[in-house]
Amino acid sequence: MNLETEQGNSGLSSPFRGTWGVGVTILAIESSCDETSASVCRDGKILSNYIANQTVHEQYGGVVPELASRAHMQNIVPVVDLALKQANVSLPEIDAIAYTQAPGLIGSLLVGSQFARSLAIAMDKPLIAVHHMQAHVLANLIGDPQPAFPFLCLTVSGGHTQIVFVKSPSDMEVIGETLDDAAGEAFDKTAKIMGLSYPGGPLIDKYAQSGNPKAFAFAEPQIEGLDFSFSGLKTSVLYFLQKQQKENPDFVTKHLADICASIQHRIVTILLNKLKKAALQTGCTRLCMAGGVSANSGLRKGLKELGAQHGWEVFIPDFEYCTDNAAMIAITGYYKYLAGTFTPLAESASARATW
């Protein structure tokens, strides 16, 4: 599946500097959910990656779209300004502007896309639309060591769980994906069942580190092929805790670490068993991770152990490039720039654009 849509040249008079691909500076903007981020990339090297988080959503137990878009409008100008200053780059030095086009919260996406479009018009620079999940995959190309092509990437986040066969920066094929909940949803929803605050995934990871991962057994869904399912696990945890709390109302409090460790162990084994199956089926033994859940310590450790057991190469992005960030938009924008794939100014943001 080729990810380069029929965008063509933007029609802008683009003052490219020097040799094609040399001295290329990209300003990138990410605003798909509740982080406002800007990054500057030059020749494939990240010079800055600034992220403004939104804490307002914690009291609601999830992201409130209207509040998220308002916060983006407040944050985007100072965030871009800080990213340029950190990179020691001025606006006239920018060769192109990349932004997250899809998928995500439409109000949030529109703030970033309209800002990028306006800046491109004002500066007479090319515009580069980026698919959020493609960018997560290409976060593995930030810094060294980098995987050679082809490689398999397990993309795991609050909204997506996929196994992607990556042949080049622009040629990727989704060979497995979730049939219901994403892995990040499984973490957050089971955390909510236990009464943990939002976001619950990092809290499960925190408590799991002092718990016994085999204290409680949760079944692994038997799904054919390379697809995933997590809704059954969520239900299993709910029924298990309801039963235990009938007998002991303090069960969760007394066994929190063990419960978290057991839930995390099952989610990690589901993910890695499918990734192992994909490696054996495709013969591709370069394994990568991407997405917010790839910051989970249990998953990172498990992938490294899987690679060591089979002699496979493993690549995991630094923590700052796992969650939503503009650096991954910048690196993707850089490769699109080299390919000459620019975006018409009329292109609009989309909440659910496919790969």
From TrEMBL:
<dbReference type="InterPro" id="IPR022450">
    <property type="entry name" value="TsaD"/>
</dbReference>
<comment type="similarity">
    <text>Belongs to the KAE1 / TsaD family.</text>
</comment>
<keyword id="KW-0408">Iron</keyword>
<keyword id="KW-0808">Transferase</keyword>
<feature type="binding site">
    <location>
        <position position="201"/>
    </location>
    <ligand>
        <name>substrate</name>
    </ligand>
</feature>
<comment type="function">
    <text>Required for the formation of a threonylcarbamoyl group on adenosine at position 37 (t(6)A37) in tRNAs that read codons beginning with adenine. Is involved in the transfer of the threonylcarbamoyl moiety of threonylcarbamoyl-AMP (TC-AMP) to the N6 group of A37, together with TsaE and TsaB. TsaD likely plays a direct catalytic role in this reaction.</text>
</comment>
<feature type="binding site">
    <location>
        <position position="296"/>
    </location>
    <ligand>
        <name>substrate</name>
    </ligand>
</feature>
<dbReference type="GO" id="GO:0002949">
    <property type="term" value="P:tRNA threonylcarbamoyladenosine modification"/>
</dbReference>
<feature type="binding site">
    <location>
        <position position="136"/>
    </location>
    <ligand>
        <name>Fe cation</name>
    </ligand>
</feature>
<keyword id="KW-0479">Metal-binding</keyword>
<protein>
    <recommendedName>
        <fullName>tRNA N6-adenosine threonylcarbamoyltransferase</fullName>
        <ecNumber>2.3.1.234</ecNumber>
    </recommendedName>
</protein>
<dbReference type="Pfam" id="PF00814">
    <property type="entry name" value="TsaD"/>
</dbReference>
<feature type="domain" description="Gcp-like">
    <location>
        <begin position="45"/>
        <end position="330"/>
    </location>
</feature>
<dbReference type="GO" id="GO:0005506">
    <property type="term" value="F:iron ion binding"/>
</dbReference>
<feature type="binding site">
    <location>
        <position position="188"/>
    </location>
    <ligand>
        <name>substrate</name>
    </ligand>
</feature>
<keyword id="KW-0012">Acyltransferase</keyword>
<feature type="binding site">
    <location>
        <position position="205"/>
    </location>
    <ligand>
        <name>substrate</name>
    </ligand>
</feature>
<dbReference type="GO" id="GO:0061711">
    <property type="term" value="F:tRNA N(6)-L-threonylcarbamoyladenine synthase activity"/>
</dbReference>
<dbReference type="InterPro" id="IPR043129">
    <property type="entry name" value="ATPase_NBD"/>
</dbReference>
<dbReference type="InterPro" id="IPR000905">
    <property type="entry name" value="Gcp-like_dom"/>
</dbReference>
<feature type="binding site">
    <location>
        <position position="324"/>
    </location>
    <ligand>
        <name>Fe cation</name>
    </ligand>
</feature>
<dbReference type="InterPro" id="IPR017860">
    <property type="entry name" value="Peptidase_M22_CS"/>
</dbReference>
<feature type="binding site">
    <location>
        <begin position="155"/>
        <end position="159"/>
    </location>
    <ligand>
        <name>substrate</name>
    </ligand>
</feature>
<dbReference type="GO" id="GO:0005737">
    <property type="term" value="C:cytoplasm"/>
</dbReference>
<dbReference type="InterPro" id="IPR017861">
    <property type="entry name" value="KAE1/TsaD"/>
</dbReference>
<keyword id="KW-0963">Cytoplasm</keyword>
<keyword id="KW-0819">tRNA processing</keyword>
<feature type="binding site">
    <location>
        <position position="132"/>
    </location>
    <ligand>
        <name>Fe cation</name>
    </ligand>
</feature>
